């Protein structure tokens, strides 16, 4: 039996971060967490590019373009969708999640989901550097681990 696991050694790898401006009070904290996680695991500042998008709904298109460029070992998506009084929350959260997953599926490049979907601003702040840690850091760690794991897997066969 062979067991394959990604690790958190990221020196020499390149990463892109797509981050939503909407709820920037939260997303800027997520970005700080993701950058800290990347740097703590050996990623040089010049090996990270950050692309700001209007909101979480726009993350999938930019994530797919970044991944398809083959410039990056992984793409990290950061956003915050906070429930309001309309169905907008469910629509945006579902489309962002599906689109981000589809970007990874379509390109074969890891695209991680660091989009908070919370009931309140307080919950979002708790998850962006508050009492529940920083989910931006977690999304960066997942990106590093997936890049490492994919490097160990057999390459896809040419059609």
Explain this structure.
- The structure is a single chain.
- With 159 residues, the protein is an alpha/beta fold.
- The protein has one domain (15-151): 3-Layer(aba) Sandwich (Rossmann fold), CATH 3.40.50.
- Helix content is 45%, strand content 21%.
- The chain has five helices and six strands, in the order βαβαβαβαββα.
- The chain has helices spanning 24-40, 59-68, 88-107, 121-126, 135-152; strands at residues 15-20, 48-53, 74-82, 111-118, 128-130, 133-134.
- A four-stranded parallel β-sheet has the order 2-1-3-4, sandwiched between helices.
- Helix 1 crosses helix 5 (135-152) and helix 2 (59-68) runs parallel beside helix 3.
- The radius of gyration is 15 Å and the shape is globular.
- The mean pLDDT is 94.
In short:
With 159 residues, this protein is α/β, with parallel strands linked by helices. The protein is built from 5 helices and 6 strands, in the order βαβαβαβαββα.
Set out the fold topology.
Elements: E1 15-20, H1 24-40, E2 48-53, H2 59-68, E3 74-82, H3 88-107, E4 111-118, H4 121-126, E5 128-130, E6 133-134, H5 135-152
Parallel strand pairs: 1-2, 1-3, 3-4
Antiparallel strand pairs: 5-6
Helix pairs in contact: 1-5, 2-3
Considering the chains and any ligands shown, give keywords for the structure.
159 residues; alpha/beta; Rossmann fold; four-stranded parallel sheet; two-stranded antiparallel sheet; 6 strands
SSE pattern, N- to C-terminal: EHEHEHEHEEH
Q: What would the principal axes of the Cα set say about the shape?
A: globular
How many DSSP helices? 5
Strand content: 15-25%
The total of beta strands comes to: 6
What's the mean pLDDT score?
94
């Amino acid at each position: 039996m062979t067991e394959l696991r990604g690790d958190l050694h990221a020196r020499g790898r390149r990463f892109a971060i797509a981050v939503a401006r909407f709820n920037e009070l939260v997303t800027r904290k997520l970005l700080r967490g993701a950058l800290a996680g990347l740097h703590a695991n050996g990623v040089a500042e010049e090996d990270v590019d950050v692309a700001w998008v209007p909101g979480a709904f726009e993350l999938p298109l930019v994530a797919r373009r970044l991944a398809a460029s083959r410039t990056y070992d992984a793409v990290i998506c950061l956003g915050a969708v906070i429930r309001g009084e309309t169905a907008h929350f469910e629509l945006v959260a579902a489309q962002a999640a599906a689109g981000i997953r589809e970007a990874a599926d379509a390109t074969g490049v890891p695209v991680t989901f660091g989009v908070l979907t919370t009931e309140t601003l307080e919950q979002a702040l708790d998850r962006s550097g508050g009492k529940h840690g920083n989910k931006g850091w977690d999304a960066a760690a997942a990106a590093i681990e997936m890049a490492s794991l994919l490097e160990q897997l057999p390459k896809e066969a040419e059609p």
